[in-house]
Design goal:
about 150 residues, globular, four-stranded parallel sheet, alpha/beta
Length: about 150
């Protein structure tokens, strides 16, 4: 006789961001138990004024896209030019009609920094998490871009 243990998997990403993993775990009992939450960062007040002062806005996460969209709406939807690290970051933007001008061949900060076309502009606004590493900023600056990097969420 072997006891059968019921298995349950806790999905720990923020609420609503577990669908892809839940789909991969089809047939396994899952519960959503968020262990992460995003909030506005220390530089959020600067974002509204910076939207129109840069050639490009670089978005590297769906969370940063959501913050950008909130501020963009509050600013009465000025014309902005956005590039993203990949389709996950682009999805919330595309849903409201902001189609990114560029996505790199691989969804990494390093690849975005290497592949961002210089003909799109020279000044970049990079709203990110306070936990984001510096690879994108250093990679873009090494190529001659002027980057304003602010912590818009944490």
């Amino acid at each position: 006789f072997h006891a059968v243990m019921a298995m349950r998997v806790a999905l720990t990403r923020e609420k609503g961001a577990n669908d892809k993993l839940r789909g991969l775990l089809e047939g396994i009992d899952c519960c959503e138990l968020p262990c992460i939450m995003f909030d506005k960062g220390e530089d959020i007040d600067q974002l509204k004024g910076a939207l129109s002062t840069h050639d490009l806005i670089v978005i590297t996460s769906p969370q940063a896209a959501s913050v950008l969209l909130d501020v963009w709406t509050q600013a009465q939807k000025p014309t902005i030019r956005v590039v993203t690290v990949g389709s996950g970051s682009s999805k919330p933007l595309v849903a409201v009609g902001l189609v990114p001008l560029f996505e790199p061949s691989d969804s990494t900060a390093e690849t975005l920094a290497e592949e961002l076309p210089v003909n799109l502009g020279s000044t970049v606004l990079y709203p990110s998490s306070a936990l984001a590493d510096n690879k994108l900023v250093s990679g873009l600056e090494r190529r001659g871009f002027k980057v304003m990097h602010g912590h818009m969420l944490h």
